[in-house]
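Subject: sequence -> structure tokens, single chain

Hey, anyone have a minute? Need the predicted structure for the following. Not urgent.
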Amino acid sequence: MKKILSYTWLVLVALFMYIPVLILAFYSFTDSTTIGAVRGFSLHNYETLFTTEELRNMIVGTLLLAVGSAVIASVLGTVGAIGAFYSRPFTRAAVETANRIPVVNADVVTAFSICILLIVVLGIEKNTFIPLVIGHVVLCTPFVYLAVMPKLKQMDNGLYEAALDLGATPFQALYKIVNPQIIPGIVSVFMLSITLSLDDYFISTYTKPATFDTISTYVVNATRGAQTEIKTALWALSTVIFLFVILAVVIMNLASAGPVKKQEVNVHDSRKQD
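Reply:
Had a minute. Here:
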């Protein structure tokens, strides 16, 4: 029965998640203008994707936004998680509850709220890119917190206290003891933050400058009436994004493997010395 359920799940995942992407990737290597008719294999869509200035600027701008937002969110979320972890139980519970709400909240509500606060109330111009960057940081930071906190709970907190007893400063203990144990979580959620930023539509729509487009906003607008050549080039873009996601998953898995084993060896050695 368990095998039947597992195989059924695998078939459903392949059918509704991977096969459609593979079909799109297949047509990205053809001259077809519609899905269903193959007109011959070609790299024309990829050539259009990387040589059209409009598309190239959109991709570069989106990547810069995603990486920059992910870096800021990773720092803020990690600092917040460490601060909450070493706080009183009530404070920690309050912070964790506050972090869970944005995760389950509708994106359109978050986007509209950020727009009202930053643009209407505070009067920050969209052309400064500040509302857009803040919006993406707000989107990603709760996920960073929720990914780092379990790593903190899993670590041997006695090592941190032992380092303090041996004369290390709190910063030195944090850097040498805590940091290696939470690095896998930080790397994983950093990659996740990039994909969240790439995928976002509502926050970008409400906060972006009029002359700037992210991948999501550009794709939505392009499907409403762009040239056929641009539409088929977006098939190639979808394939590239899918390959990036696969790479991100591989990096996250690799990051989760190394530092943990190293820390376990350090824990064992320190206990033997005691």
